Fold:
Amino acid sequence: MTSPIPPAGSEEPTPDHPRAVTSMVLGILSVVLCAAVGPLAWWFGRRTLVEIDGSEGRYGGRGLAQAGYILGIVGTVLLAVLLLVVLILLIAGL
Structure:
């Protein structure tokens, strides 16, 4: 007797990590608003990626977390450049 083959697509999708979307939203906000949430998005994204990788397939959403991580780095760099420009303008007396 052969075992029945489950129909294609019958497996339940892997749920996204709860913080994957949060990481991406913070990353987008950090780039769009050049706000101080860049380091927070960077941290959230990195931590979420580590937890997804360690979950042995229980969590998905790696792309969302990675997008938040990368956008958090970009937002942090933009914030640093903005602060550097403000500091230079203050020193120059403008």
In short: DSSP finds three helices and no strands in the chain. The first helix runs from residue 20 to 33. The mean pLDDT is 87.
